[in-house]
Amino acid sequence: MMANMMEKGITLKSNKTKKTEVSKMKGKVLVLIVAAIALLGAGVALAGISVTKHNLSSGGPGTIKASAGQQNDEICVYCHTPHFANTAGVAPLWNKATPSATYTMYGTTLAGTAPDAAPNGVTKACLSCHDGVSAINSIVNSAGAGGVVTGGTNVAFGTTTAGTAKTMPAGATNIGTNLADDHPVSITYTAGKASLVATTTALTGWEGATTVANLLRSSKVECSSCHDPHTSTNGLFLRKANTGSALCLGCHGK
Ligand code: HEC
Ligand code: HEC
Ligand code: HEC
Ligand code: HEC
After folding, report:
1. Nearest Cα residue to atom 6 of ligand 4
2. Which of 15, 130, 205, 243 could form a disulfide with 175 if both were Cys (CB 3.0 to 4.6 A apart)?
3. Among residues of the chain, what percentage have pLDDT more than 90?
4. How many domains are there within the chain?
5. Structure-model confidence comparison of residues 145 and 6, the more confident one
6. CA 63 to each of CA 52, 169, 210: distance values in angstroms, whole numbers, following the listed order
7. From CA 166, how far away is CA 155, in angstroms rounded?
8. pLDDT tens-digit profile of 202-228?
9. 52 pLDDT exceeds 50?
10. Measured CA distances, 119 to 64, 71, 184, 185, 187 (Å)
């Protein structure tokens, strides 16, 4: 279309003018493309973690976050660190201690599947802030140079002073240590059981997943099967908005 317009507009002109006009056009097109990419970039940034309650830096939009005036203006630091990470297999480059609480698991399902005796990796990562007993404000490697404390150190959060644990207040975001009243996690996904679809089934419009297999961690359902902690475009960090129970129907062919 663009090439067509260019040809029509310059048919009567000399070859030299033609070249300059074409390059001018190309320049304009380039400027437009660059502007479009910049806008797109801004849009992506807006939908990212910074506008969610998981931005625990002092500038974050939530109420539970670092105190102002600290060096804690970073976002990833409350969960990840590039160095001195916890290598116990909680989550990649994990910057928190492994939670030490004892959890009550879901129990055996109707289809006869029992979850693991204790939560696995990424589920523990979520529980390290959402179990109501682990310190949200505990990190291993503080922002900036130095400040490494194996096992974690509690940084100042809101009115909670440094050295004191800030735990999740009572309410919907406090899942507790009893996981018996939650959808089973750390449980093996077996196609056919509970009408579960094949792991190769394609998913459309899910955050960070194009097949059911992408939702599983070591073939199991964990908190991050349904939630992506980095984006809340669907609300509540859900990988898929649950309108018409679309999230549930992604796995259960009911
Ligand atoms: C509230 C905690 C939290 C914060 C804050 C956070 N992450 Fe994560 N991140 C996680 C968890 C949990 C996982 C494992 C998720 C999974 O199993 O899907 C993870 C996984 C990842 C992964 C590997 C999975 C993937 O997406 O490919 C990358 C990369 C990542 N995070 C980058 C970041 C960056 C960069 C930031 C800061 C801008 C950040 N994260 C902030 C909790 C967090
Ligand atoms: C570093 C601490 C931390 C970790 C790790 C963490 N969260 Fe959160 N999360 C929070 C805080 C703080 C809030 C805000 C709670 C509030 O205001 O009641 C929150 C809120 C939420 C909410 C509610 C969001 C809303 O908009 O109301 C969901 C859902 C959630 N987290 C899921 C998860 C899942 C799933 C994981 C693991 C993949 C996870 N979180 C890991 C700290 C954490
Ligand atoms: C099978 C999918 C699924 C799994 C697994 C899952 N969640 Fe959720 N979660 C949801 C849905 C859907 C919602 C939206 C609210 C609702 O429908 O109750 C939600 C809501 C939440 C909320 C907001 C409170 C609420 O109920 O409104 C938190 C916090 C949360 N989840 C944390 C977690 C944590 C932590 C784990 C792992 C222990 C986890 N979720 C595992 C699907 C899941
Ligand atoms: C990531 C895949 C996945 C998603 C998404 C999912 N489930 Fe499940 N669900 C499972 C697995 C795995 C089991 C255990 C199956 C078994 O018994 O072997 C299960 C079991 C169940 C059971 C049976 C529990 C029992 O005791 O027998 C119910 C009910 C259920 N899910 C409801 C839901 C609802 C409601 C949603 C949406 C909020 C949902 N699931 C989303 C994977 C998923």
Report:
1. 248
2. 130
3. 75
4. 1
5. 145
6. 11, 11, 33
7. 9
8. 999 999 999 999 999 999 999 999 999
9. yes
10. 25, 33, 10, 7, 9
Q: How many CA atoms lie within 13 A of 240 on its CB side?
A: 21
97 within some domain:
no
Residue 37 covered by a domain: no
For 54-104, the pLDDT digits (tens) are 999 999 999 999 998 666 789 999 999 999 999 999 999 999 999 999 999
State which of 134, 178, 227, 242 you would mutate to test the pocket of ligand 3, scoring each by most atoms of that ligand within 8 A of its C-beta.
Answer: 227
Does residue 204 lie within any of the structural domains?
A: yes
Q: Would you say 82 and 140 are in contact if contact means Cβ atoms under 8 Å apart?
A: no
Two tokens, residue 1: 């279309």
Residue 85 corresponds to which tokens in the numbers above?
A: 């990470």
Q: Which domain holds residue 214?
A: 189-254
For atom 6 of ligand 2, the residue with the nearest CA is 126
The predicted-structure confidence for 135-187, as pLDDT tens digits, reads as follows: 999 999 998 887 899 899 999 999 999 999 999 999 999 999 999 999 999 99
pTM of the model: 0.89
Q: Is 125 near ligand 2, meaning CB less than 6 Å away?
A: yes
Residue 175 included in any domain: no
For residue 127, the tally of other CB atoms under 10 A from its CB is 25
